[in-house]
Amino acid sequence: MHNLYDNQQWIFIALIFFGIIGYIAFIRWRDHQWIEKRFSGQKVLAMSFGVNYFGRASEPGKPRKSSGFLMLLPNQVFYRSRTARLELSIPSNKMVQVYPDNSIKGYNLHQSVMIIDFINENDDRDSAAFKIPYPPQWIHAIENNLLKENTEIINK
Q1: Residue 6 has what pLDDT?
Q2: Is 0.90 surpassed by the pTM of this model?
Q3: Are residues 92 and 21 in the same domain?
Q4: Same domain, 2 and 48
Q5: Phi-psi sector, 82: left (phi>0), alpha (psi -120 to 50), beta
Q6: Can you say how many angstroms the Cα of residue 153 is from the centroid of all Cα atoms in its chain?
Q7: Which residue stretches of 9-155 are H helix?
Q8: Residue 84 shares a structural domain with residue 34
Q9: Which of 46, 59, 61, 105 has the fewest CB atoms within 10 Å around its CB?
């Protein structure tokens, strides 16, 4: 019996590998179900999983990190963390600017993040930082779909 385990180690490695893949697929499926329930009927312009959120500039303390998904909808950017059930909605009419940076709250994050400047619920300027796949595409999509409207309104 001991000889069976020595010669078949690849089976255990394969089980672990496929177990991890199965877990990731289940988490994505669960997130898709939640999105469909919450935003059914709304057009999703872009969506990324595995997004890290580092908090808002107005929050006290050091930047925190949570992992979740980010969605670009016709009227907002929406983030939801996977474990903390933290949600952040930034309406398009409150967005000021979107740009790449590597810090928030004066802390260097040692990685490139997308910063969204917006007007918060207290009518103060605020920022939120996200580490996302393909930041230039996200920045371009937000500028063309959400900030373009704000620029046109301001210029009128």
Answers
A1: 64
A2: no
A3: no
A4: no
A5: alpha
A6: 27
A7: 9-39, 135-142, 148-155
A8: no
A9: 61
Are 55 and 10 found together in one domain?
Answer: no
Residue type (1 letter), 115: I
Amino acid at 27: I
Sheet holding 95-104, edge to edge: 87-91, 76-81, 66-73, 46-56, 125-131, 107-119, 95-104
Q: What is the pLDDT of residues 133-145, one digit of tens each?
A: 989 999 999 999 8
What's the token pair of residue 62?
């050091």
- Amino acid identity, residue 26? F
Looking at residue 152, what is its pLDDT?
Answer: 44
State whether 145 and 105 are in the same domain: yes
Count CB neighbours of 146 within 10 A.
24
